[in-house]
């Protein structure tokens, strides 16, 4: 059975655009909106809110395009340190450039880029030159003196006044950037300071999809947000400022609540003592909760996401990427929803595939596998709900076998017909062993996709299977082992939601 829709994109765009326009109309001045989270390709939202278009925020901006322009912020330190986006496997500066390109494909122009907390970093200088040579306006903002405690210094010519004013022309300015800590809020406040000095009315607002303030605190969708931000140590809570001011409960998260008194004081100082917002919730403009059309569907999807995040954290903890605090928080969130890893159907099926591989080798039915260090299994859940498995061999990784089996199932090709010729696989393996001097010669997913595309040019049956690959986007997959770089890269390209156990597919410490 296909997944039922839980979120209405058209309702969301209509509600969200109307609400932002109302905020602009009621204020009657330039509105700077800090866009938190992902502006494009918001895959987390699409997983926990089935039906959510990952690019619906770009569609929203198209709706507001006549009034809006976009500024992209990036932290100079993130460029210098070559900080990586774990979800895409690329650096933050590369992500910023990709964001500019992707927005351009939507017909949305980035008016300028701001390198924040600039201290003359060499890599940040090179990044700035690269953008300027492509005709993009680039500004640099230094760390704000006195932040966060010295309000007099912050709101002065030596604080925000040190930064150059970014030239803007539209009444709505969307300020976005790759990842947290990019300096979006500081850029907004610096702009409001300069606009006010010039006698122009300007205001700040926050656009943050999660947590969804209108849902209960312990709603699975909000808990899934905590699971998604384990590295940031975010925690949801009832907004105490909103409760005190209105008597109504609204959900926010710790960083926004903790920073609100400072933000409110800064805005009040800029605006001559006027307090615009009573709470972080009032400051926000997100209306995602009002576009949920099937709560049960979203609850189930969010539970699946919590399990996915837990399993990913377990794997990252095993390889030293995640720390113990993240692991313990992930475990606590699982307990809050009374979940186990087996709640994700592909988990027991993948483990069963690995057990079957081991039994086959022990019984002598598959002698070649006796030389393998580890018996690995993989399982993928198709959109129909059917679960397809695969196991490793001297020729293929378990994930590779599962993908091939899934394409054959979708294309109606009998399971016993190989899509890749053993001669071709062995030829690639020989190249890896004898020319590239690789220890592991079996095909990972990335290599398989290339081999499959070559085979499709020669065999119509293979082409039919290749045509089914887009159907795997968004499917759940589990491996009984930590994926190799080639498997992870290939599965990411296919858009598969991967989880894995902490078993290593090889006894070697270094995997090519």
Mean pLDDT: 91
Q: Quote the CATH topology of the largest domain.
A: dip2346 fold like
Q: What is the CATH architecture assignment of the largest domain?
A: Roll
Q: Assign the structural class, choosing from mainly alpha, mainly beta, alpha/beta, alpha+beta, or little secondary structure.
A: alpha/beta
CATH homologous superfamily identity of the largest domain? dip2346 domain like
Keywords, please?
512 residues, alpha/beta, dip2346 fold like, Cytidine Deaminase, domain 2, 3 domains, 6-stranded parallel sheet, 4-stranded mixed sheet, 14 strands, DUF1846 domain-containing protein, DUF1846_C, DUF1846_N
Give a quick rundown of the structure.
This protein is an alpha/beta fold. It has helices at residues 9-27, 43-48, 56-63, 76-80, 92-105, 122-132, 151-154, 184-197, 220-228, 240-246, 254-270, 280-283, 295-318, 324-336, 346-362, 398-411, 422-435, 445-456, 460-466, 485-494, and strands at 30-35, 68-75, 84-85, 90-91, 110-116, 138-140, 172-176, 202-207, 236-238, 251-253, 377-381, 387-391, 476-479, 497-500. The chain has 3 domains: 12-207, dip2346 fold like (Roll); 296-342, no CATH class; 345-500, Cytidine Deaminase, domain 2 (3-Layer(aba) Sandwich).
